[in-house]
Design brief:
This protein is 57% helix and 10% strand. It is α+β, with helices and mostly antiparallel strands. Among the domains are: 8-90, Jelly Rolls (Sandwich); 112-357, no CATH class. The strands form four sheets. Strands 1-8-3-6 form a four-stranded antiparallel β-sheet. The protein has a four-stranded antiparallel β-sheet with strand order 2-7-4-5, with no helix packed on it. It starts with 7 loop residues before the first strand and ends with a helix. The relative contact order is 0.05.
Length: 631
C-alpha cells in the first residue's frame, strides 16, 4: 500500500478536500471525525476506521463528489487511488465497507417496502389471489405430474441440463420439448386448483405457442448475456409468455425455456424470464428471492397496458426493496466479487425503475453510481460482468445525454461502450461484440453530426461494418437491414459535407440493400425509413449531376415514405418528409428558372449574331448600291 506519509493531520475546521477537486487519494480515518458536505449541507459524519473519498476514486469520475471537513482534529492515512482499487479486490473487509457505503453516499433514494418482504404477499398483491403454499424448487414435470403425484417432486439433474446444451452450436428451442421444468406455486381460487393443475396448464399451453416463429429468430447457442437481458422485448411480439429457469456452475450456462399461459400471475400482461446464475446475482443457497427478482426486473417492462403496468410496477418496487437490502445489510462472508454482484443487482433494479418511472432520473443516477462502484470490485478475469457493467453505464449516459444534449455525456457513453468492447472478444462473445460495435457506430454517427469530426464518421462506418460480419443478411436480416440503413446515412452526410458523390452513390446502394429485406407490408415504418434515406441520396446525387429524373424519383420516394408514416401515426417523420418534399420542389423551381434563363441567353446570343450579320449585310448592300450608282 503506497502512502504519502504514514499519516497526515488536520485541525478542526480544516478542509481536507473540496467537491469537484481531483480525486487522487482515499483517506482512512485513524483518529477524530470528519463532516461530509454536499452543496453546503452536512449529509454525514464519519469517524475512526471510516474511509473518505471512495466515490471519486472507485467510480473513475476523477473528482471528489463532496467536501470533507475535519469536525475534530483528525489523523488520516492517505491511500493512492490505484492501491485502493487493488485493496477493494483483495481485502474482504474493504470490499464489505464499500458495499455498505454504496447506498449511503449515492443519491440516497428513500426506498420503502410497500409490500411485505416475502413472495407470497407480492404475488397476492399482483394477482389478487391468496396463496396457500409457495415453493421454488426446480422440478421435472414428468409422468408424476400426469398421475397427479407432486408430493415427491423429482429434482432436475444438472447432468440433464448439461446434456441438453452439450452441443451448443445447434441446440434449438424445439429440442427442449421433451423435458420441462416449472417453478410450482399453489394458488387458491378459480385460477387454478393446486400445483398439479398449474403445472399441467403450463405443459398443455406449450403447443399453442408459435414455436417455429420464435425459433427462426434465435437459437440457444447464440444467446449471450446481453441477449438474455433483452430477449423479453423480442418474444413479447408473440402471443406467449416465457420464463427461463435454470442453474449454473462456474464453467457453464445451463438454462431452460418454459412457455406459460398469459394468465400466469407472475407475468400478467408481460414477459418474464429468469436465469439463475452468476451474471446478475450470486447463488446464495437458492434463496427464492433471487428467482423472483429476475422475474420482477424483466417482467415489469413488458406491458403497455396502464393497469397491468401499474401492477407490474409493484413487482419492480418489491425487487428494488429486496435488492436494496443486499447492500444495506451485506454479508461479511461474501467475496469482493459477490459484493460487486449485489451492487449490480441493486443497480439493475434502479435502472429498470428509472426507465419505467416518468420521474425516474434519481433512480438512473443512482444506478450509474452503483454500477461504477461495482467495477473496481470485479476481478479482472470476470470479463463478462465487466463488459455488462460498462455496457449499462454506456446506455445510461447515452440516455441522459439524449435528454440533456450534452456532448460530454455522449463522449462518456462512448468511452464506456469502448471499455465493454475490450472485454468482449469476437471469438468468445460474438453477439455482444457485434451489438457493442453497432452501438459505438450509432453513437459516433451522432457525434459526427453534432461536432462534424471526420474521424467520428470513419469510426462509425468501421464499427457498422464490423457489426455486419455477425449480423449477416442470412442470420439476422432485420438487424442487417438496420446496419445497411445506418451506413447509408453516414455516407450520405459525409459525402455531402465533403462533396464526395461517390460516397453518396454508395449510400444509395446500402439503402437499396436494406429495402431488399424490409418488406413494406411487414415492417412498414422501417421500410419508410430506408426509403427516405434512398430519397435523400437520389436528391443529392441528382442535384449534383443536374439529373432531373433522379430528383423527381427522390420526390416520389419521399411521398411514398410519407404515406406510410401517416398511416403509422409517426407525425415527426411526416413533418420531415414534407420539409424534404418542399425543398425538392423549391429546387425544381430553381432548376426551371435556370433552364429558362439559359434558354433566353441562348436565344439572345443567336439574335445578337443575326443582328450583327444583318447590319453587315445591310452596309455591304448599301455600299454596293452606291458604288454601282457611281459607275
Amino acid at each position: 500500500m503506497t502512502m504519502i506519509e504514514n499519516t497526515i493531520s488536520f485541525k478542526s475546521g480544516d478542509i481536507i478536500f473540496k467537491e469537484g477537486e481531483p480525486a487522487d487519494y482515499v483517506f482512512r480515518i485513524l483518529l477524530g471525525s470528519v463532516e461530509i458536505k454536499k452543496r453546503g449541507s452536512v449529509i454525514e459524519k464519519l469517524s475512526s476506521s471510516d474511509f473518505i473519498g471512495i466515490e471519486g476514486v472507485a467510480t473513475k469520475k476523477g473528482v471528489y463528489e463532496y467536501t470533507a471537513i475535519a469536525s475534530l482534529d483528525v489523523e488520516l492515512v492517505p491511500i493512492y487511488h490505484e492501491d485502493f482499487i487493488e485493496l477493494m479486490k483483495t481485502d474482504n473487509e474493504v470490499a464489505l465497507y464499500v458495499s455498505k457505503r454504496a447506498i449511503k453516499v449515492s443519491s440516497t433514494i428513500g426506498v420503502e417496502n410497500k409490500i411485505n418482504n416475502n413472495p407470497k404477499s407480492l404475488i397476492e398483491a399482483v394477482s389478487g389471489q391468496r396463496i396457500t403454499s409457495f415453493r421454488t424448487d426446480i422440478v421435472k414435470v414428468d409422468e408424476k405430474v400426469n398421475q397427479g403425484n407432486l408430493e415427491q417432486p423429482k429434482p432436475a439433474s444438472k447432468n440433464l441440463f448439461k446434456s441438453i446444451l452439450k452441443e451448443r452450436s445447434e441446440v434449438e428451442l424445439r429440442s427442449l420439448k421433451e423435458d420441462f421444468f416449472a417453478i410450482l406455486a399453489n394458488v387458491e381460487g378459480d385460477y387454478t386448483k393446486g400445483c398439479k393443475n398449474w403445472a399441467l396448464s403450463c405443459f398443455h399451453n406449450i403447443p399453442k405457442v408459435r414455436v417455429s416463429e420464435i425459433e427462426s429468430v434465435f437459437k440457444i447457442s447464440s444467446l449471450s448475456e446481453m441477449d438474455l437481458f433483452n430477449i423479453f422485448d423480442l418474444i413479447s411480439k408473440f402471443n406467449a409468455n416465457v420464463v427461463v429457469i435454470g442453474e449454473v456452475d462456474e464453467s457453464e450456462r445451463i438454462l431452460e425455456f418454459k412457455f406459460l399461459s398469459s394468465e400466469n400471475p407472475y407475468f400478467e400482461g408481460g414477459i418474464g424470464f429468469y436465469l439463475h446464475n452468476s451474471l446478475f446475482i450470486p447463488i446464495n443457497g437458492g434463496n427464492e428471492f433471487y428467482k423472483l427478482l429476475r422475474v420482477c426486473l424483466l417482467g415489469a417492462m413488458s406491458s403497455n397496458d396502464a393497469l397491468k403496468k401499474e401492477r407490474l410496477n409493484l413487482l419492480l418496487e418489491d425487487a428494488l426493496v429486496k435488492a436494496h437490502s443486499l447492500i444495506e445489510n451485506p454479508n461479511s462472508s461474501l467475496s469482493s466479487k459477490e459484493h460487486a454482484y449485489n451492487l449490480i443487482c441493486y443497480a439493475n433494479a434502479c435502472y429498470k425503475k428509472g426507465m419505467l418511472d416518468k420521474r425516474g432520473y434519481k433512480y438512473l443516477n443512482e444506478a450509474m453510481t452503483i454500477y461504477s462502484l461495482s467495477l473496481p470490485l470485479l476481478p479482472e478475469v470476470d470479463a463478462r460482468m465487466t463488459a455488462f457493467v460498462n455496457h449499462q453505464l454506456g446506455c445510461l449516459n447515452n440516455y441522459l445525454a439524449s435528454k440533456s444534449g450534452k456532448i460530454s455525456e455522449y463522449r462518456k457513453a462512448l468511452s464506456f461502450f469502448e471499455e465493454a468492447l475490450k472485454s468482449s472478444p469476437k471469438e468468445i462473445e460474438p453477439m455482444l461484440w457485434a451489438n457493442l460495435n453497432f452501438k459505438i457506430g450509432e453513437l459516433c454517427f451522432k457525434l459526427a453530426i453534432i461536432e462534424n469530426k471526420e474521424e467520428d464518421f470513419f469510426k462509425s462506418i468501421n464499427c457498422f461494418n464490423a457489426s455486419s460480419t455477425i449480423y449477416t443478411k442470412e442470420d439476422d436480416a432485420l438487424k442487417w437491414s438496420e446496419i445497411m440503413t445506418f451506413m447509408a446515412r453516414v455516407l450520405l452526410i459525409h459525402g455531402e459535407e465533403y462533396r464526395n458523390y461517390d460516397e453518396v452513390k454508395k449510400a444509395m446502394d446500402f439503402a437499396l440493400n436494406a429495402l431488399s429485406v424490409r418488406d413494406k407490408s411487414v415492417v412498414p415504418v422501417l421500410w419508410a425509413n430506408s426509403k427516405s434515406v434512398l430519397a435523400s441520396g437520389l436528391f443529392l446525387y441528382g442535384r449534383n449531376k443536374k439529373d432531373k429524373t433522379m430528383i423527381y424519383d427522390a420526390k416520389k420516394a419521399f411521398f411514398d415514405a410519407k404515406e406510410v408514416y401517416l398511416k403509422a401515426g409517426v407525425h415527426s417523420q411526416v413533418v420531415t418528409s414534407d420539409k424534404n418534399i418542399n425543398k425538392i420542389e423549391e429546387h425544381l423551381i430553381e432548376m426551371q428558372k435556370d433552364e429558362e434563363f439559359l434558354e433566353k441567353k441562348k436565344v439572345k446570343t443567336i439574335f445578337d449574331g443575326l443582328d450583327m450579320s444583318l447590319d453587315r449585310d445591310e452596309g455591304y448592300n448599301k455600299g454596293d448600291k452606291r458604288d454601282i450608282g457611281k459607275y
